[in-house]
Amino acid sequence: MSNRTFTMVKPDATSKGYSGAIIDQIVKAGFSIKALKWTKLTKEQAGLFYDIHRERGFFGELVEFMSSGPIIAAILEKENAVEDFRTLIGATNPANAAEGTIRKNFASSIGENAVHGSDSDENAKIEGDFFFSKLEIF
Q1: Which of 2, 26, 29, 112 is a good FRET partner for 98, with 20 to 30 A between their CA atoms?
Q2: Which residues are catalytic?
Q3: How far apart (Å, rounded) are the C-alpha atoms in residues 73 and 57?
Q4: pLDDT score for 52
Q5: Is-above-0.90 flag for pTM?
Q6: 62: confidence class by pLDDT, cuts 50, 70, 90
Q7: CA 74 – CA 22 distance, rounded (Å)
Q8: Which H helix or E strand runs over 75?
């Protein structure tokens, strides 16, 4: 089990000015930031990042959305990071997310759900390595 996970503050949340509040909620939940980057994905980069969903009907819409504006990518550290972060962000559908979770507080729909969170230790490493070089991770 790793103590690191990966997250992105998605274009819907950055465009609405929620980035600072989301990062504040993450830090207050006990996560430390080991890498942080403000960037914008191209359609090609978004397609590569979400390649696991390529055969699903929503893939094209997901790529369009994730390349529509800037994102904040981050590697976070905390004991039991992946599971604890998934709890902090809440259900994919904000209507089903628990009170106080990031998605309950900042997401507007299943598609525009404010943040991405890795679903496994293995994917956290893969996703973090997608955005950050070894020189950028502390």
Answers
A1: 2
A2: 116
A3: 25
A4: 87
A5: yes
A6: very high
A7: 12
A8: strand 71-77
